[in-house]
Design brief:
It is built from three helices and eight strands, in the order αββββαββββα. It has about 180 residues and is of the alpha+beta class. The protein folds into two domains: about 35 residues; about 120 residues, Beta Barrel (Elongation Factor Tu (Ef-tu), domain 3), CATH 2.40.30.10.
């Protein structure tokens, strides 16, 4: 007894469908596992923004060796003094990462310059930072740069902890 062609084609189609479903389930499971790994192990930073800042170009360049240790390259050194509120300044410490956002010049990149906090003066409400940029860098702030907006990373947490804090803060505000 022979099997008709239509039944054979239907059986092949059904087998292929199950294979696609299995592949889709495995791919979806891998994506969910990667997301869960990020959700519980990733890092989200909390930044504090400066109220104002001043920038000063130091007159003498800083000389550094290049990556191959074969050439000496001049860098321009900037001193940035950022003013923060007393409450925000209590969270800022020497060595924390900071991002400098320059505005008003269309030639500058959209990405920030990164540096670290060098000194915190709680009496004056300031944090001092230094930025070194290669002199031949076309994105250098220049000698007439406007004061940047300074953001200091003061805390980091996992996305799960961040979501927990956001949800708990909203529930506290909604009960009042």
């Amino acid at each position: 007894m022979s099997i008709s062609f239509s039944r054979t084609a239907a059986a092949l189609h059904a087998d292929r469908f199950e294979t696609l479903v299995r592949f889709g389930m495995i791919a979806g499971l891998v994506i969910i596992l990667c997301w869960l790994l990020w959700f519980f192990n990733g890092t989200v930073y909390h930044y504090l923004k400066s109220e104002s800042s001043t920038i000063t170009l130091e007159p003498q360049p800083v000389w550094r060796l290049d990556d191959q240790q074969s050439h000496i390259i001049p860098y321009q050194r900037y001193t940035i003094i950022a003013h923060f509120s007393k409450a925000d300044l209590s969270h800022i410490e020497k060595g924390q990462q900071a991002a400098l956002y320059f505005s008003g010049d269309e030639t500058l990149p959209n990405r920030p310059f990164t540096t670290t906090v060098d000194q915190v003066n709680s009496k004056q409400g300031t944090a001092t930072l230094h930025l070194e940029v290669r002199r031949d860098n076309p994105t250098s702030p220049g000698s007439d740069a406007q004061a940047p907006e300074v953001e200091v990373a003061v805390a980091s947490e996992t996305p799960a902890a961040f979501l927990f804090h956001v949800v708990s803060a909203r529930s506290v505000h909604s009960t009042r």
